[in-house]
Design a protein that fits this description.
Elements lengths: L1 E4 L16 H14 L5 E4 L9 E5 L8 E6 L19 E8 L11 H20 L8 E3 L15 E5 L10 E3 L5 E10 L1 H10 L1 H5 L3 H4 L16
Parallel strand pairs: 5-9
Antiparallel strand pairs: 1-2, 2-3, 3-4, 4-5, 6-7, 7-9, 8-9
């Protein structure tokens, strides 16, 4: 993967089975700039077997002292959300993660730096590869063994939630055809937190996540699972 500076438009290919129209990608870009911040850098895919998935890199500012990485392209694919749940869970989604200001996003040959981006690309393709859907409260591990994402952290899985640290309008963008694209925040979690979600449900877990949601990724944060649970 490469980082191209000051690249405002994504590169599309006629070979991409699922891709936004020019009007649609303009809506996504403007939504990111309005709610997550201006960006001049984009991680562009060199090869796209299904969706063309770029990632906008919003750099830290005085107002938002963290990186915000946001996918651009996942929502071109319409997920197989059950009909009875579609009023609550849109069929199109993009994903974001916030990283601390000292995260080295230029040194991506190092797995310690690259794993959030790698996981975003993997996550975005889960609905395509498995004919399924993703929504708030859904979890996904690095692998079946809950192996940590990198050797310098014990975080091994993620849960999706709403980007509550941003303005209310950040949650959803509306495409010209009236379809909504929801933006889910990726929260990396520990194995005990994953187990807590499986045992007690996401609603019980989310109330413990407030400080985690409002702050950028901390690879050494303490677990939020209550003592004795």
């Amino acid at each position: 993967m490469r980082l191209l500076d000051k690249m405002k438009k994504r590169i599309t290919s006629k070979a991409d089975p699922f891709s936004y129209t020019e009007e649609e990608i303009n809506v996504i870009e403007e939504h990111i700039k309005t709610y997550f911040g201006e960006y001049e850098s984009v991680f562009h895919e060199i090869a796209s077997p299904d969706i063309h998935l770029d990632i906008a890199a919003v750099t830290p500012t005085l107002e938002r002292s963290h990186y915000t990485l946001v996918t651009m392209g996942a929502g071109a694919y319409e997920m197989n959300v059950p009909l009875e749940w579609r009023p609550k869970f849109p069929t199109r989604a993009e994903y974001l993660i916030t990283l601390p200001p000292d995260w080295d996003i230029k040194n991506l040959d190092n797995p310690k730096n690259y794993w959030p981006i790698k996981f975003m690309k993997t996550l975005a393709r889960v609905p395509i590869n498995n004919d399924t859907w993703l929504g708030i409260g859904h979890t996904m591990s690095a692998d079946g063994e809950n192996t940590p994402f990198a050797e310098n952290t014990k975080l091994c899985s993620i849960v999706l939630t709403h980007p509550k640290a941003f303005e209310a309008g950040a949650l959803t963008a509306t495409l010209p055809n009236g379809k909504n694209v929801v933006f889910y925040l990726i929260i990396p979690i520990y194995e005990d937190e994953l187990n807590f979600i499986h045992e007690h449900g996401f609603d019980s877990f989310e109330k413990h996540l407030r400080n985690v949601i409002e702050r950028p990724l901390d690879i050494n944060r303490p677990s939020v699972v209550p003592a004795g649970k």
